[in-house]
Here is the input.
Amino acid sequence: MQWVWRVAAALLLLSAAAVWIWSIQQKENNNEVFRSAAWITDTSGQTEEINSSLHDFLDSTRYVDLKEHHNLRTLATAAGEFTKVILPDGTKVSLNAGSKIVLSPDYGKAAQRTISLEGEAYFEVVTIPGRSFVVKTADQQIRVLGTKFNVRAYPSFDKTITTLHEGKIELSNGNQNVILQPNNIAVNKDGALSLQRMAKLEKEAWRKLDFEFDNESIKTVLHQLSQWYGFELSYQSSVPNQYISGKIINGTKTSDVLEIMKNLTNGNFQMKGKVLYVNFANN
Here is the structure.
């Protein structure tokens, strides 16, 4: 009977290997909607596309090296695009889909290195003695010396969220100034800053290509999904004033994403071409 068990074990291993290979292929196929890419523009207005693999984006040690691009002015991602770069001063930036940073014209020389952000980015700032680092969004300013932090500041969102992983930053919105310590989260909404202190902060889900939303309005979640999956939104009815939470794992098909949203919101979602038709008429 020993040979029977050996054959059974061999078949089980082959079966497991086949399932594993199939799941990897499925994940690769499902990720066709995402790219690790961006467009850069220099001070003369010349543009260039940079790209790498999604594998590189998920690898914490791999970045697109822009240290020789001394005239770098802007870095922007389109819908479904994500990138990680090293700026000319050595600072590392990860950029979420549909986001943009603009470096000040004197970024490489001035005592204050200034970056304007629209969208979401994670910064690992290199400390340079005598040269501070400032990130500006539409409604706030962050001043740092050397630190790691994430800023979420999409124009369509009703709040800006700043998360500090390491170091110390000073945040100002024109009305208030707050100092963030590691594991602090600052929420800037309607001109008021509130501070949350966490025991431990996990790596932002988007940097693992997981789509996570926590107590966000349906409209906010749908807009962010459109940035990730590259579709336009067409609302066929008013949207319920409902807040939802959830997490969509990297590799999930667009059709499955829409099914998740249907279950969460009781809405009707139909994709036609690159347009998602949203209807809550039966709610």
Remarks:
- The CA atoms of residues 171 and 178 lie 5 Å apart.
- The first strand starts at residue 35 and ends at 42.
- The chain has two domains: 34-197, 210-279.
